Prior knowledge:
By secondary structure, this protein is an alpha/beta fold.
Amino acid sequence: MKDLELILSAADVCSHCGACLPFCEWDAFERAHPGQRGSADLCRPCMHCYRVCPRAHPVTPKAEQTVFGATRSNDLLGYYVGAWGAKPVIKAAGVQDAGVTTALVKFLLREGLIDGAVLTRRNEAWIPEPFVATTEEEVESAAGSKYTASPALSIMATALERFSRLAFVGVPCQITALRNMQQVKDKRYDARRVKILIGLFCAESFTYGVTNSHGIAAFVEKELGLPLTAVTRFDIKKNNLLVYGPDRVESRPLAEVKDYAWPFCYSCRDLTAELADISVGAVGSKADENALLARSKLGLEIVEQAREAGILQLADLRNPGLIERIAKNKHDRRAAVTPDEERFLFKRSIRGNFKKNQ
């Protein structure tokens, strides 16, 4: 057990995407029996948690071929068939930058192309909360970046039980995990019901922590002197973290908050959600636009439909080279897989190993 504890603490491989939770019988028992602690005997040799884990199965040419029927020509941005600077004709309130993601999801619901969308909103203390949006008002409630990891895929089981046509919006590791779920083809939770995957550019995510101890929560309240309930917005611009309060904006260099980043993020190569149908970011475009990449045939069709319907305005992507430079930085900082990580990843159950340590 001590050896296992060392592996788990040293490897720090979990991206906290939540993809393993719908498959885990151990977790299912504990959810069905609140307050009871499940037994390790519930951990089955099915290896589902291993098969869906984005750390064990990251983006590969084989995965691209499976999803898109082709592989990349651009090693830094992944496979894509169209790139633009995009902005909505009508900008929703509370969006982070131009608001392209919010506009696209609202369009999908309005046109009846999906029944719901798995999104992440936040509560008043900025704790991220995954949920299924079925109305345009609910979509708007999820607008804005949270910059902390959310187990967004943890609710996928209940979402797939309720809906047969879903959209999902998430960061690169979540997109990769969802593609892995689709390939597993588990009869209980058929992730192929997720019809459109919208990925968000992500360089790194911060640990939330607790306000009186550690993480971004403690940094905001203790170092910046802002109650989290008073924060109206987080943003990252020009290598600075910006925290907006009711009467002031605090800016700190990212280097100052690097210790709050998830260690996993430093071994992730995927900036632009390379397995998404559509990827959206806030770099490489004009200030009032989002960078928009269509990767799959379906993604391209949806972008074109949104333009024709007067939802989006599309222009040439202003500076794709900037996106490539940031992606290269993420590639270059990727740490080599440690021996501890290898030992952990080749255990038969990632989720079971984690739970035995709780």
